[in-house]
Design brief:
mainly alpha; 74% helix
Length: 68
């Protein structure tokens, strides 16, 4: 089954990349920078959780025991 829409991970990663780009390329004010940083940090945590979950599914599918 082919899905043309990006999944939650891809959407979060794209937003995280946009935040990084905005922080790197423009002169944002301190308040905006702090807001972007907080959003980026939350997105990074969510992406990490999604990757760990995917890794667990792959490990399970391969019949291996997950390593901590």
């Amino acid at each position: 089954m082919s899905d043309a829409q990006p999944g939650p991970f891809e959407e979060k990663l794209a937003r995280l990349e946009a935040i990084v780009k905005e922080l790197e390329e423009s002169s944002v004010g301190l308040d905006r920078a702090v807001t972007l940083f907080k959003e980026g940090k939350a997105l990074a945590s969510e992406c990490e959780a999604l990757l760990k979950d995917a890794q667990m599914h792959v490990t399970t599918a391969m019949g291996d025991t997950p390593s901590a």
